[in-house]
Amino acid sequence: MKLYIKYMVSLRCKMMVKEELKKLGLRYVVVDLGLVEIMEDITQQQRQQLKENLRRSGLELLDTKRSILIEKIKNVITEMIHYSDELPKTNYSEYISEKLGYDYTYLANIFSEVKGITIQQFIIVHKIERVKELLLYDELNLTEISYRLHYSSVAHLSNQFKKITGLSPSFYKKLKQKRKGNLENM
């Protein structure tokens, strides 16, 4: 049986969900971002208890097909941008459509209707979050980051970064380094 969980975006979330399943005596086959596959059917009481326990931890057990589909879209994008070493060579629309087995227009319409932003806007926000992470790790320069995240140029990346954050990537990096230095001097 498959269960879908909203806001499950990190390894810590996966560990927490595994712990909650164990408390309820539910054996799982897979615990992935936004998805849990358990071996047996879940009783209504177990489902309610899991729902309450997850809610206390900031997670949400999904019930409607629409909310499950939205969560699947978000998880594909999150996994693609934050957890894979290289972004797909195909268009994001083709990639998402292929991963989920739905027509992209259908997915895009539902996503926009429910979330109030387009899938493309959601991707851009996540790419900028990834840029922030990579800038802070200080392992890659801006050219390498723009190449890794499939930007056409460093200028394109910088413009998008500024549009989303209000800061240039170099100013953002200096700001974070300054804050880090201040914390270390306390």
Q: What is the rounded Rg?
A: 19 Å
Strand residues, percent: 5-15%
What's the end-to-end separation, in Å?
51 Å
Low-confidence parts lasting 5 or more residues at pLDDT below 50?
A: none
Assign the CATH superfamily of the largest domain: Homeodomain-like
How many separate domains make up the residues?
A: 2
Bulk shape: globular
Classify the fold: give the CATH topology of the largest domain. Arc Repressor Mutant, subunit A
Question: How would you describe the overall organization of this protein?
Answer:
It is a single chain. This protein is α+β, with helices and mostly antiparallel strands and 186 residues long. It folds into two domains: 1-63, Alpha-Beta Plaits; 65-186, Arc Repressor Mutant, subunit A (Orthogonal Bundle). Helices cover 64% and strands 9% of the residues. The protein has nine helices and four strands; from the N terminus they run βαββαβααααααα. A four-stranded antiparallel sheet has the order 2-3-1-4, sandwiched between helices. Strand 2 (28-32) and strand 3 form a beta hairpin. Helix 6 packs across helix 8 (154-165). It is globular. The mean pLDDT is 89.
List keywords for this structure.
alpha+beta, 9% strand, 64% helix, 186 residues, Alpha-Beta Plaits, 9 helices, 4-stranded antiparallel β-sheet
